[in-house]
Batch of 2 targets.
Target 1
Amino acid sequence: MPETTPKGLTRLAFGGDYNPEQWPETVWQEDVRLMREAGVTMVSVGIFSWALLEPSPGAYDFGWLDRLLDLLHDDHGIRADLGTPTVAPPAWFYRAHPEALPVTADGTRYEFGSRGAICHSNADYRAAAANITTRLATRYADHPALALWHVHNEYGVPVSACYCDSCAAHFRRWLTDTYGTVDALNEAWGTAFWGQRYADFDQINPPRLTPTVGNPGQALDYKRFADATLRENFVAERDILHRLAPGIPVTTNFMTALSQCDSVDYWAWGREVDLVTNDHYLITDGRRTHVNLAMAADLTRSVAGGAPWLLLEHSTSGVNWQPHNPAKAPGQMARNSLAHVARGSEGAMFFQWRQSRRGAEKFHSSMLPHGGTDTRVWREVVELGSAVDSLRTIRGTRTRADVAVLWDWQSWWAQNLQWRPSEDHDPRERADAFYEALYDRHLTVDFAHPEADLSAYPLVVVPALYLMTEAAGNNLKEYVDNGGTLVVSYFSGIVDEHDAVHDGPYPGALRDVLGLTVEEFSPLLKDDRVRITGPDGSELTGEVWSEFVVPRGAETLWTYADGLTAGHPAVTRHRLGEGSAWYVSTRLTAQGLDAVLGLAADDARIAPCTDLPRDVEVVCRTGESGTFLFAVNHTALDTKVPLDAHGTELLTGERAAGHVSVPAGTVRVVRLDG
Ligand code: GAL
């Protein structure tokens, strides 16, 4: 069994990407001295260093990296997360192999001069990547600084798929393996439509630019193929590292909840890495950034199967790649970092250690800013380093969740293809909205694949899963039959794994469990609203979508009061076996989601949490070293979080009984007695 925790790291990870090649070696001395001052325990190095390590084909210069790793380890005891630099092949490589540059769907070939310009089917790229990985593994397998391998960087961005001729040939091989015969492929893709039938695998290309909408089965399979191709590349590097450097865990940094990186099926990736690591940046689009952060952390933990994971990158303050990049408010960095730790991260790492003076990311914040040590950011970094250190006993504990939300990247790939009933329906919007509603009820969420065992959860929420296999539908039915409470949002369970509509009335995969059929979708025009009224006279608002729902066993709780669907059920509940299955057929606003989830939570016997203010997070980690209650106060008011046990607050050392005081904007972590 490969190791799953960074070798030799006895504390939580605290540090960041360190790019010393951007600085003269005299600066390195200052770097490591300041790292010690800040309590840095691990840094990520060498991620973009291929051009320095192999300055010309077959000529290597490892001297600087030897000196760097020695400096980190010998004098300062700092562990290294060592990159394989395969996300940034050198200029000489592209001169020799221009066809390794990726091609877009419209036939444009990217140029060298940034990073991540890679066709992952290209044999020359694969050979060169294997070679540099082998050299690094051979040289550093036994280096005492080496704690973790960091393969590549953020697979899936900036290029998620290439459409060149080698990818076309690779795709044909993948299709042959997947379908066996071209007849099976014709059936799955529905090529009888628009005369798209293939007589041979050789006739098939990637879904390149077509005059109008292309075949959805082909487009969906290309997403799967592109994801599998990235994973083949990762696995090839990982296997070299496992063989040559046994005992050192291998990771690659994910970006689980970032909608900009939705081309990677992290359920599959989570099974391939030794340690799940994640990068998270606040998206400043006017929404509550800490809710998206909590969601990303919960999703990362779920991808890790509930095991501890590691936040490998986040920012000390503003980033530089959004339209507006606000600085973090005083205290916000620590709140962000420790909120990740609460939800399972074994530390908090940043991009990057020292702010660059040159290059594309010079305006991105860092641990050591342009302004040096006499800055707020630096002082907060030093303070955070000490806070993180005081939490070292939480290592190995697991975050406890209350409910599950189903999540499936493949379903989104299908849903986001063209020509759907409404372009305003965005499945990710529903996932965010349901998550936020659960967050506001102070419930901790695990995410789960639709075919996963759900029996541990009293409540399971399906925000928008357009693609759902028959197996997933049966899984949900069994879950409800056995006493679970299920809440399903509209336009779920519609198509199978090939984007073919399930046989019979909608929603094919969920008809039985929901006890209803949907006769017709009735999407709303932009800015239209529908009123829906409940049995107690309560009124909710729907947007974007409505439906002609026909109950077939389900009871109607709310009814459309106006619009084309007036008089039809809007929200239903089906009692089945020991459990119940709720259906919401419109896009409810936050108030509506809260009302429905409140009643469903009652069905699930989840006690409402009435004693915590909005935006005060309480999350528990538990394990052999104890139970740790994290309270994160995102508000501007001091608050008290009730405790039903006594304990010791780890950041202040104070005893806590009955409650823990959490001053405005801060975090408290209580280790409960016993
Ligand atoms: C990450 C990337 C880092 C850095 C960072 C800036 O996605 O892995 O190398 O670019 O973004 O926010």
Note: The chain has 17 helices and 27 strands.
Target 2
Amino acid sequence: MQIIKKANELTEIINELKKEGKKIGLVPTMGALHRGHKSLIDAARKDCDIVVVSIFVNPIQFGENEDFDKYPRNFEKDKLVCKEAGCDIIFNPEPQEMYADYKKEASLKENLKIKEEFYTIKVPTKYTNKLCGKSRPDHFNGVCTIVLKLFNIIKPNVAYFGQKDIQQLIIIKNMVKSLNINTKIQGCPIVREESGLALSSRNSYLTESQKEKASTIFKVLSNIELMFNEGFTNKNEIFEQSKKLLHKDIEIEYLEVCDINTLDYSEKILHNSFVAIAAKIDNIRLIDNVVLS
Ligand code: AMP
């Protein structure tokens, strides 16, 4: 397994592999890898000749008051996860490699000014004015910018994203269509703890007791899915019933039904929609969703 830190070096390696006709799979991550990330690497390993995992905590997708500085970083453990999963190349650039004007010693606030000096992706407002975009207004612009940079460096045939971040997945699918990017976007199912809690790097902020309380988020979603499958369609009725299952220490930021392709809000719970939730426990923000097919 190779560990590459320079974009040019990686592009050269990829160009050679492409000449040999190799199919390249990319799994973009921010590290602190868990079984959710591993499931994406496994999917790539199954489909592709070469699996690249990028590990990069992307500063420009964080807000000034978010957890960029304390975001969990554990490169040594990540290397082991990647190696065991059969990854061929880890791409682990420094922020200065991805954003030339980034200053290592400066604050995030200072560094976010690079967005004014830099070409970035502007995601259409209809995708960013809802769900997570409401409380994280520039987040998806930052995500799409780094994803496009990774696509340009690696030119993957397929890129793997988790359905855990469903708004991100839908926005990236639409970016690829909109900008004629020659990469297939493969969505992968959510991997959960036994309790139902969706795995997330941010779960490392939770104590065992908070995790137990947080597992009721999935109980709410499961009940919504159950009622939908039983034929209930009234959104308010389904939501009110289901919210009763949430632990009292958890505060909902949003609970919405959206169209699976367009992200449009829906007043009815329908096939081809998903129900998404963001909720806070002691100020730790968690997201989850369930697709109704
Ligand atoms: P992150 O490192 O959090 O940026 O996530 C990298 C990729 O892993 C994204 O495509 C996520 O959607 C995906 N991912 C994160 N958690 C899970 C999970 N529990 N199950 C499946 N995929 C996940």
Note: The longest strand covers residues 250-259.
